[in-house]
Specification:
This protein has about 325 residues and is α/β, with parallel strands linked by helices. The chain has 2 domains: about 5-40 and about 145-335, Rossmann fold; about 45-135, Rossmann fold. The chain contains 12 helices and 10 strands. The chain has helices spanning about 5-10, 45-60, 75-85, 100-110, 125-130, 145-155, 165-180, 205-215, 250-265, 270-290, 315-320, 325-335, and strands spanning about 20, 30-35, 70, 90-95, 115, 135, 160, 195-200, 245-250, 295-300. Strands 1-2-10-7-8-9 form a 6-stranded mixed sheet, sandwiched between helices. Strand 3 (about 70), helix 3 and strand 4 form a beta-alpha-beta unit. The radius of gyration is 19 Å and the shape is globular.
Length: about 325
């Protein structure tokens, strides 16, 4: 067999990640967490990295010995470094800002190389100048298998996900529209008989205002404090036409929600999981107020001990100006 055949075999899908029941104070409503931290790299980015590599191999852009390059500061680098190592490929990631050991160490332990660039938005041009194949997770579409896997497990009324590249919400929205249920088969689905997709968006991100105003190139120019999601501009992979709702979430609410996830599940998840959970609880609250039952799925991931010193820590949240306590009280009311 050739290298590409072996590579595609290594890039096949793994075991499905679990659905975890989460308590809500809304009779007849179920909230399920799709736990993407069960992946080998502990993150939803695992699926996207696998899809990017698979597409690049199929298109002949990555072959044996190709140096793979990316521009990112988050969990995508860890997931991509994991696949690069598995495929025996050199991996270079260009990260924004000054070198930080917490960001660099997980990538370097997998054999990747980290290069840091200032100002942050210069990472894309810097990555394009590196000799090799630029994966370009924001500009290159690569649908992954989350939607097929999830809808084989459950057909919820709503599925909620944070938006980074936009690829996940687009994949879910496209698949939800293709899987229209026969009329009357599930009275909880929308009038078209399909699951609806909601995007949870943190402060400073462009997705909520851009979606609301229907401005495809909307930009805030401001960085998100929530690792992994929120963008200063509407990315090409985000498809507003495949999203039913975008829910803005205060950063303090995201930080409070990550702590509630850990209390219930034991998982030290990151901020993006908290953002998605808070948005899911907004939908649960709406269903409760309307007297409707049904199921909401919130996609979570990125459970790592490093978050215990950030989102889960009072000293960190106070330093960031996040008033977590008020949101914790609201969370307790909604999830007890």
């Amino acid at each position: 067999m050739g290298w590409d055949v072996d590579a595609l075999d290594l890039l096949r899908s793994g075991a499905p990640t679990p659905l975890v029941e989460f308590p809500v104070a809304a009779p007849g409503v179920r909230l399920l967490l799709k736990d993407e931290s069960a992946h080998p790299t502990g993150s939803l980015r695992h699926r996207h990295a696998r899809a990017l590599f698979r597409r690049a191999v199929l298109d002949g852009l990555v072959t044996e010995g190709t140096t793979v390059v990316e521009a990112t500061g988050g969990n995508a680098a860890v997931a991509q470094a994991w696949f690069a190592r598995r495929l025996g490929l050199p991996y270079i990631v260009v990260m924004p800002g000054a070198r930080g050991e917490e960001r660099a160490r997980p990538v370097e332990e997998l054999g990747g190389e980290c290069r840091f660039v200032t100002p942050p938005l210069a990472i894309y041009d810097a990555a394009r100048k590196v000799e090799g194949h630029f994966l370009d997770q924001f500009g290159r579409a690569a649908e992954h298998d989350l939607a097929d896997e999830l809808f084989a497990q459950v057909r919820p009324d709503w599925v909620v996900v944070g938006a980074g590249t936009g690829a996940t919400s687009a994949t879910l929205g496209r698949r939800a529209r293709a899987l229209v249920a026969p009329r009357g088969a599930n009275s909880h689905l929308d009038s078209a008989g399909r699951t609806r997709v909601a995007v949870a968006d943190p402060e400073n991100s462009a997705y909520f205002p851009g979606w609301t105003l229907d401005v495809s190139d909307y930009a805030t120019g401001m960085p998100s404090r929530i690792e992994g999601i929120g963008r200063p501009r509407m990315e090409p992979g985000f498809r507003p036409d495949l999203v039913d709702l975008v829910i803005p979430v205060p950063d303090a609410a995201s930080a409070a929600a990550v702590r509630r996830v850990r209390e219930v599940t034991g998982l030290p998840v990151g901020g993006s999981s908290g953002t998605a959970l808070w948005a899911a609880l907004e939908l649960v609250e709406r269903m409760r107020a309307e007297g409707r039952g049904g199921t909401v799925v919130s996609v979570i991931g990125d459970a790592h001990p490093r978050h215990l010193t950030t989102y889960h820590d009072d000293t960190w949240s106070i330093a960031k100006g996040l008033d977590v306590r008020a949101h914790e009280q609201e969370l307790f009311r909604r999830t007890s």
